[in-house]
Structure formats: structure tokens, C-alpha cells
Write a structure and sequence with these properties.
With 211 residues, the protein is an alpha/beta fold. It has one domain: Alpha-Beta Barrel (TIM Barrel). 51% of the residues lie in helices and 17% in strands. The protein is built from 11 helices and 8 strands. It has helices at 10-18, 29-35, 39-49, 63-76, 89-100, 113-121, 131-137, 141-152, 167-175, 185-190, 195-206, and strands at 2-6, 24-26, 54-57, 81-86, 105-110, 126-129, 158-161, 180-183. Strand 3, helix 4 (63-76) and strand 4 (81-86) form a beta-alpha-beta unit. Helix 8 packs parallel to helix 9 (167-175). It is globular, with a radius of gyration of 19 Å. The protein binds erythose-4-phosphate. The site of erythose-4-phosphate (E4P) has 10 residues, from helix 7.
């Protein structure tokens, strides 16, 4: 069970890695575009900032171009680069080709237990449901994750829950069976805080321990 940073901003990654308990970084094409920099430059910087997995999505138009792009990404850091592949039947076949050849893959934007069942058959290491988006656009995102976790029981495929907007949503998907979560920096920092803890600290600070 791990927590990842969901961002392509280098300063976010630097701050997150300094915490010492964030395993790696997930990106997506929107994250990369917001940096205003070439994607591979961002990716190289992120790989240099962490010793854990970095996730990068293929975006080429055709499946053969995505196959070539996946190998280009894999070659940058075979031990830690995870190729993100959006869930379609064609891309699940692409995933099977790549995993058989030793490329670490995550099938992303999964919305149904059927998709994650096929992702497991294709040898995907991870699947990424977008929980908050699913809740806003499909149904109850947490319940969908719970069904996915039930389908994946006994397989090698792990749920990396994404699109998480609150501490409560993070906790709910972990309780529903997600193996990992990826969160933006502000949520990551907020997870460790609670008014109860702050109040306890105030009271302890008022205690005067004799020297
Ligand atoms: C993973 O990187 C996903 O693309 C990301 O968490 C989606 O989050 P969003 O729904 O806020 O775009």
C-alpha cells in the first residue's frame, strides 16, 4: 500500500519527496501540459527527484505509435517508469503486448469492473479509477472501486485510486479496497492534520514540565 503525488510540477514533487513517505509520482497529459515544458524534460526531472515509480501516459494517435511511445518511455528508466494506457479494448491488447515484453503498465481511466478484469488478464500492474470524476459522471465512485477490488482479488493487478478531492474520499477508497492512492500536494499535506491533534498540542504546550 503506497501513496503517490498526483502532479507534474517539479516543486510539488520536491516537497512531496522531502516528506519521506511518498513513494512516487503520477502524471497525466493535463498535468504535463500545465507545466508548459516538453513532456520528456518534465519526466526526466521527476525521475531524478524520486527513487520510486513515475507514471507517464502514452498519447500517440495510433496503437502502433502508442506501442513505440511506450517503449521510448520504458527505455528512460526500465525499473521505475510505469506506462499509463487509457482503458479501451484496443489498448488492453496493447497492454498485453507490452507486459509480455516486460514493460510495467497501468491501465488508466477505468470505469467498470469489466475493464479491470480484462486489465488483470492483460497483465497490468495497476489500474487507475478516477474516483471523484466517476462520482460526478457515472455513479458512486467509491462503490465502483469496491466492486473493482472484489473482481481483482487474487490477481496481480492493484488499484491505484486517482482523482481524489478530500481526505474523506481518500479514506473511503482505501476502506473500499484500493491498494494505493495518488493525491495532489495540498491534499497530501492536509491528510496529516486534524483539529483534535492541534488542540492536544496546544494543551501539551501549556504544560510546564519542571527542568
Ligand atoms: C491520475 O493522474 C489522474 O489522471 C488524475 O488523478 C485525474 O484527476 P482529476 O479528475 O482531478 O483530473
Amino acid at each position: 500500500m503506497s501513496i503517490f503525488l498526483d502532479s507534474a510540477h517539479i516543486e510539488d514533487a520536491r516537497r512531496a519527496m522531502q516528506l519521506g513517505f511518498v513513494r512516487g509520482v503520477t502524471t497525466n497529459p493535463s498535468h504535463i501540459a500545465r507545466t508548459g515544458r516538453p513532456g520528456l524534460d518534465v519526466l526526466r526531472d521527476l525521475l531524478a527527484l524520486t527513487d520510486g515509480p513515475v507514471f507517464y501516459q502514452v498519447t500517440a494517435d495510433t496503437v502502433e505509435e502508442r506501442y513505440a511511445q511506450a517503449w521510448e518511455l520504458h527505455s528512460l528508466c526500465p525499473d521505475r517508469l510505469v506506462v499509463k494506457i487509457p482503458a479501451t479494448t484496443e489498448n488492453l491488447a496493447l497492454t498485453a503486448r507490452l507486459t509480455k515484453a516486460g514493460v510495467d503498465c497501468l491501465v488508466t481511466a477505468v470505469a467498470s469492473p469489466a475493464q479491470v478484469y480484462l486489465a488483470a488478464q492483460a497483465g497490468a500492474h495497476y489500474v487507475a479509477p478516477y474516483v471523484n470524476r466517476l462520482t460526478r459522471q457515472v455513479g458512486d465512485g467509491v462503490s465502483i472501486v469496491r466492486e473493482m477490488a472484489q473482481i481483482l482479488r487474487g490477481t496481480q493487478t492493484e488499484i491505484l485510486a486517482a482523482s481524489l478531492k478530500s481526505v474523506e474520499e481518500v479514506v473511503a477508497v482505501l476502506l473500499a479496497g484500493a491498494h494505493h492512492v495518488t493525491v495532489p500536494l495540498d491534499l497530501l499535506l492536509a491528510m496529516g492534520e486534524h483539529p483534535f491533534s492541534q488542540q492536544a498540542i496546544v494543551e501539551f504546550n501549556q504544560a510546564r514540565i519542571p527542568a
